[in-house]
Structures are given as C-alpha cells and as structure tokens.
Amino acid sequence: MARIAVTCLLGQQKKSGCRLDAYCVMPDHVHFLVTPIADGCSTLTYTDRWKGWAAFEMRRAGWTGTVWQPRSYDHLVRRDESVEEVALYIVGNPVRTGLCSSWEEYPWCGIVSGGYE
C-alpha cells in the first residue's frame, strides 16, 4: 500500500500543477511537502485528488478498510521557515521513530526536487 501511495503522490504532480518536494509514508500516516507551480493551482486540490486516486488503487489492490481520515492536517511554510528544513524533517520521520538509521534506507520517503540533502 505504501508503494501505491508513493506512486500516486509522484503521479499527481503533472495532474495538479504542483511540485512534490518531499514525502514520507509511515505505517499509520503520510507527510508530504507540495508547492504550487502554476497559477490557480492548489495544494488542497493536490491532496484531495491524491487521496482519492490512492484510495481507489489501494482498494483495487485488496484494501478493505478505511484508507484515510476524513480530514487532513496541513501546515503552510512561512517566510521564517526553511523549505529545506521542512523537507529534511519530513524524511527524518522514520529515523526518529526507529524504523531505520538513515532516511535514505527507508523505501517510502524521499526528497523529490533535490538540493536539500
């Protein structure tokens, strides 16, 4: 199911006019950093479409329970915050929870647009 979530996160970029900067699919939640790159595009639309597409694909793959919570929790990156630091925080989740010793060895997270390592 994590592979489906990642495939849909990456695939949603072209469909939504947003760039996926970083992501991490944890056993019980997902973090991702998305930047709108075209006028009129919305990270909320990206999220809604991704959740719908991923849920559809997960059900096709045999998932029978609820896929997502009804609400998402979002955070806007403010001017005093570094996008790079937020991306590194996101990919650091599996390390902080003890799933791996380095985020590079965790297969369900990554920095997509590069330059933050």
Can you walk me through this structure?
- The chain has helices at 2-16, 43-60, 83-91, 93-96, and strands at residues 18-25, 30-36, 109-111.
- With 117 residues, it is of the alpha+beta class.
- It has one domain (2-111): Transposase IS200-like (Alpha-Beta Plaits, 2-Layer Sandwich).
- A three-stranded antiparallel beta sheet has the order 2-1-3, sandwiched between helices.
- Helix 1 crosses helix 2.
- The mean pLDDT is 90.
Task: For the structure shown, list the relevant keywords.
117 residues, alpha+beta, Alpha-Beta Plaits, 3-stranded antiparallel sheet, 4 helices
Compact description:
Helix content is 39%, strand content 15%.
Write down the Rg: 14 Å
> Which structural class matches the secondary elements?
alpha+beta
Separation of the first and last Cα atoms:
26 Å
Number of domains: 1
CATH fold-level assignment:
Alpha-Beta Plaits
Biggest beta sheet attributes? 3 strands, antiparallel
Uncertain segments are: none
Silhouette: globular
Total E-strand runs: 3
The number of helical elements comes to: 4
Q: Write down the overall mean pLDDT.
A: 90
Write the element-wise H/E pattern from the N-terminal end onward: HEEHHHE
Strand order of the largest sheet: 2-1-3
- The percentage helix is 25-40%
Annotated CATH architecture = 2-Layer Sandwich
Strand residue content = 15-25%
Give the CATH superfamily.
Transposase IS200-like
CATH C-level label: Alpha Beta
List the topology elements.
Elements: H1 2-16, E1 18-25, E2 30-36, H2 43-60, H3 83-91, H4 93-96, E3 109-111
Antiparallel strand pairs: 1-2, 1-3
Helix pairs in contact: 1-2
